Inverse folding.
């Protein structure tokens, strides 16, 4: 352990603003990419399902018209 | 060999294999970054000159590595797409570019923040800094070109050409610290030679670098799969898959 206490760890020997800013921006961008990728996948699947349902219901309507 | 390349290029095959690979890369990324962060932030000894500000290295160096590797990846994907017309390569390129831009931004931003206590300035038109800024604009160019055409194929080809031409910047970034030795120090982390820093500092850096690469691979697999579904949404197998999914 390079620090004696939690306060010392957070203070980073006076370099807290630099160290924590750099780390937080990095963490925010990486977590943001992950959250974005998940949301993208979810909304895409939702759209595809809706399209598939619509395509199927149109298909079945056509079958009804044919008879 | 050719059969393998074409199988690799089949969106369905890629979609299936990446589903199995993905969890491993996520797990590796989470583990490596978690251990690397705790080790680097709390356990690695402070630098005798820079004190604790050197702990920025653990995000700065991995991001800078990835920023350059992703651009090389873009150029390779562009070549594969242009020569063999393999669509999956273009889909991967499309999803890699924004992450590459984000990594370039992280490298520049963390470097600036680090520069204040270390160099006494957040920016200088040093060769390394300038060539990294150019890399950021190249990423913006690749992303913008892709979206700038009415037809997707034109956008793909334009973005591919810029990626293949722009990759010339990568060796310039790499050797900038040796050719013009102004502000930025030469590489302090290499796999091939003996570490120039104490091993207690070097190990967490290695873990972070590997963790960032795993994160990049996992995210690229995940987003390429989404891109495949989007572009192949009229294909039989995608429609079957969507129907089975509920």
């Amino acid at each position: 352990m390079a620090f004696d206490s939690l306060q010392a760890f957070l203070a980073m020997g006076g370099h807290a603003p630099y160290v924590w800013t750099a780390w937080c921006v990095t963490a925010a961008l990486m977590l943001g990419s992950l959250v974005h990728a998940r949301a993208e996948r979810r909304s895409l699947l939702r759209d595809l399902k809706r399209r598939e349902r619509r395509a199927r219901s149109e298909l079945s309507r056509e079958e009804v018209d044919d008879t | 060999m050719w059969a393998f390349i074409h199988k690799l290029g089949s969106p369905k095959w890629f979609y299936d294999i990446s589903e199995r690979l993905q969890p491993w890369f996520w797990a590796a990324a989470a583990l490596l970054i978690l251990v690397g962060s705790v080790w680097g932030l709390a356990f690695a000894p402070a630098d005798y000159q820079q004190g604790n500000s050197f702990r920025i290295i653990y995000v700065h160096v991995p991001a800078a590595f990835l920023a350059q590797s992703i651009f090389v990846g873009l150029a390779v994907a562009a070549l594969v797409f242009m020569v063999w017309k393999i669509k999956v390569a273009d889909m991967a390129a499309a999803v890699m570019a924004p992450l590459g831009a984000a990594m370039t931004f992280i490298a520049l931003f963390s470097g600036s923040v680090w520069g204040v206590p270390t160099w006494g300035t957040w920016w200088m038109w040093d060769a390394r800094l300038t060539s990294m800024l150019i890399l950021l604009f190249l990423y913006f160019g690749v992303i913008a070109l892709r979206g700038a055409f009415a037809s997707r194929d034109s956008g793909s080809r334009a973005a591919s050409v810029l990626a293949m031409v722009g990759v010339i910047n990568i060796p310039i970034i790499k050797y900038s610290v040796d050719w013009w030795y102004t502000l930025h120090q030469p590489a302090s982390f290499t796999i091939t030679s003996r570490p120039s820093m104490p091993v207690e500092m070097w190990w967490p850096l290695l873990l972070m670098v590997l963790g960032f690469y795993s994160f990049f691979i996992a995210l690229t697999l995940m987003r390429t799969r989404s891109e495949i579904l989007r572009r192949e949404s009229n294909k039989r197998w995608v429609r079957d898959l969507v129907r089975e999914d509920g």
Summary: Chain B is about 75% helix and 0% strand. The mean pLDDT of chain B is 91. The interface with chain A takes residues 41-46, 51-53, 55-56, 59-60, 63, 98-99, 102, 105-106, 109-110, 113-114, 116-117, 215, 219, 222-223, 225-226, 229-230, 233, 238-239, 242-243, 245-246 of chain B (CB under 8 Å). The longest helix of chain B spans residues 11-43.
